Amino acid sequence: MSQAAAAPAPIHAPASAAAARATGLSKVYGSGETRVVALDSVSVEFGRGHFTAIMGPSGSGKSTLMHCMAGLDSVSSGSARIGDTELAGLDDRRLTRLRRDKIGFVFQAFNLLPTLTAYENITLPMAIAGRRPDQAWVSAVVRTVGLAGRLDHRPSQLSGGQQQRVAVARALASRPEIVFADEPTGNLDSRAGAEILGFLRESVRELGQTVVMVTHDPVAAAHADRVVFLADGRLTDELLAPTAERVLDRMRLFDATGRTS
Ligand SMILES: Nc1ncnc2c1ncn2[C@@H]1O[C@H](COP(=O)(O)OP(=O)(O)OP(=O)(O)O)[C@@H](O)[C@H]1O
What we know:
Elements lengths: L17 E12 L6 E12 L3 E5 L6 H8 L7 E6 L2 E2 L5 H11 E4 L11 H11 L6 H10 L15 H14 L4 E5 L7 H18 L3 E4 L3 H4 L4 E6 L2 E7 L3 H13 L5
Parallel strand pairs: 3-8, 3-9, 6-7, 7-8
Antiparallel strand pairs: 1-2, 1-4, 4-5, 9-10
Helix pairs in contact: 3-5, 4-5, 5-6
């Protein structure tokens, strides 16, 4: 990448264009004795229309990378881009708008409003933004995540898996440039978790969505097109067309070479 001569070459996405890109991205917390280098010159591209999993041991910088890429945290140096937009130079107002217009989020906690129906939760971000939902798109999303019969239900009337489906639909409903999912199956049993991963997968295949997911789980990572591995704030490796076994093998290899905690 021309603008990052000093940074290591990015690990390239297997896609024609990147929906998001970090170049020489570093994040340092604290100073002096409490200084922590959470990210150390990370360069990575997240391909448009692809599903990427970020893996690595606890404390390796996965959440920090996701937060910096999503404009939820500032970068110390280097570049974080969503499409063509450089996040580093944006003030709070522009960052808020970028998150609202271009990014969908799915977190471990479903973060639904209890007094609203599933449909109202799904379309809430657009209502706040004063945008009218694209009904055909929202219908496609609702079909994809299998919520068609439950749109009038409130969160308390839905199972955990169904609530997370609403959260996934909410993330997809505004047709964001990219969806960031942070341990989206962490609060679900394995069946409901597999369903959610299937829907994320489906949103990539059927709707052309770009998804980036942080996970500890090799089985979850196997739903992605590609896994990138972090250790000690650095990008160390990647795996294309992962299977749970290959991801596990790679994790064991890291342990054996002492690159992980
Ligand atoms: N706000 C903060 N202030 C100080 N240090 C932080 C902060 N956030 C993260 N860190 C540190 O940065 C490093 C990377 O943390 P991060 O949460 O990104 O790791 P992670 O790979 O997501 O871990 P986990 O899998 O446990 O969630 C850790 O050493 C962590 O203690």
